[in-house]
């Protein structure tokens, strides 16, 4: 799926919930399935995006990670721009580094 809107991002996030627990377990990592579903239901994209970024960071630096659903996880981490204006408005008082 090409993420072009917030709705696309959420649809991808919901679909990924079915794959991430097994994907994470393959690398001896845990995916917080219940927490992620609660964040989806609450519409909390910032915290959910943070979970995706954490999983991404915890993956080994190896070609072995490049199997389904790696591409979709990559998209959820990098194609976050539909929320950028909202994020900037919510964090306007934070210092830029």
Brief overview:
The chain is mainly alpha-helical and 97 residues long. The protein has six helices and no strands.
What does this entry look like structurally?
Helix content is 60%, strand content 0%. It has six helices and no strands. Helix 4 (45-58) crosses helix 5. The mean pLDDT is 89.
Architecture blueprint of SSEs:
Blueprint: H1 6-16, H2 20-26, H3 33-42, H4 45-58, H5 70-78, H6 84-90
Helix pairs in contact: 4-5
Q: What structural class results from the helix and strand content?
A: mainly alpha
Q: What's the shape?
A: globular
Distance between the termini: 33 Å
The sequence of SSEs as H and E is HHHHHH
Report the mean per-residue pLDDT as an integer: 89
Q: Which blocks of ≥5 consecutive residues have pLDDT under 50?
A: none
Classify the helix fraction into a percent range: 55-70%
Biggest sheet layout: none
Number of helices: 6
Q: What proportion of the residues form beta strands (DSSP E)?
A: under 5%
Number of separate strands: 0
Radius of gyration: 14 Å
Keywords for this entry:
mainly alpha
């Amino acid at each position: 799926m090409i993420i072009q809107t917030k709705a696309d991002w959420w649809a991808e996030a919901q679909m990924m919930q079915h794959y991430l627990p097994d994907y994470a377990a393959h690398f001896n990592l845990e995916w917080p399935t219940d927490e992620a579903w609660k964040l989806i239901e609450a519409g909390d994209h910032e915290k959910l995006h943070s979970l995706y970024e954490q999983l991404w960071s915890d993956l080994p630096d190896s070609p072995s990670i490049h199997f389904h659903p790696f591409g979709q996880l990559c998209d959820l981490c990098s194609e976050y721009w539909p929320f950028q204006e909202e994020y900037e408005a919510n964090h306007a008082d934070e210092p830029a580094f």
